[in-house]
């Protein structure tokens, strides 16, 4: 029903407005008596064989929601009723910021893709903390970034601020230095500034009574040499793992008219490259750290490919928008069928 009726109706309107509309609808729907059990009966797959213990956390299933969908942690409890094993919120910054000017979100229907240049629009970490206090046992990842006005030489301060603010309210952290929509942010992926950033966060982490897993989210546009640097950095800084991958700046092979809009591309065109990055990291590191696979998962088979390439968990974003919540159920059922 989603692909035949709901999606065609929603896709007639501006994608950012549709996002807020569906958020509001899901929030109100879940307040109705019996609504949450109904959603769980439709989309959630409960089976102990789906459970995963990764970087010290126990996930009820390996299918999560990627960052960028619930930027301000407004709907994570309701979204978890759709069958997700974990929810990643953010990217959040220390101070609120409006993001880039609209229009900044574009559907590429012929390519089953999205281009966004949102620019870390969010209400700030303090607002997120207040919402996360209402968590009903959902595993939460906190995706942190820097404010647009913060120069790169002071970026570490922004990451530390959000790390400290969120520490008691998330289960793991994700350091986002790979979004193409904040000026000069990707320069922080260079070896020396990245090691400095991660080591600083790890020092803070080690001082805690119960340290939290810290992961690094990387771009799909890195070269093999840069990916080898990532492996070295992960092993040197002893962070918990990598999320592969963020959106791409490549426009290769696209068919849609608006393919040259600036911003990060996500969806089906990213399927192959993100899996290649996962396989490269897994093989070259001898599976020495966990990888969360994200990018172009539009079917259960796409998710299986990423798991077989070396991912421990997977995340959805654009595929969730194009395929609907049944995709979560289908992936979990396929994992059980394959015995992965």
UniProtKB/TrEMBL annotation:
Names of required cofactors: FMN
Binding site for substrate: 71, 116-120, 176, 181, 246-247
Catalysed reactions, as listed in the record: (S)-dihydroorotate + a quinone = orotate + a quinol
InterPro entries the record matches: Aldolase_TIM, DHO_dehydrogenase, Dihydroorotate_DH_1_2, Dihydroorotate_DH_2, Dihydroorotate_DH_cat, Dihydroorotate_DH_CS
Subcellular location: Cell membrane; Membrane
Role this protein plays: Catalyzes the conversion of dihydroorotate to orotate with quinone as electron acceptor.
Official protein name in the record: Dihydroorotate dehydrogenase (quinone)
Organism whose genome encodes this protein: Gramella jeungdoensis
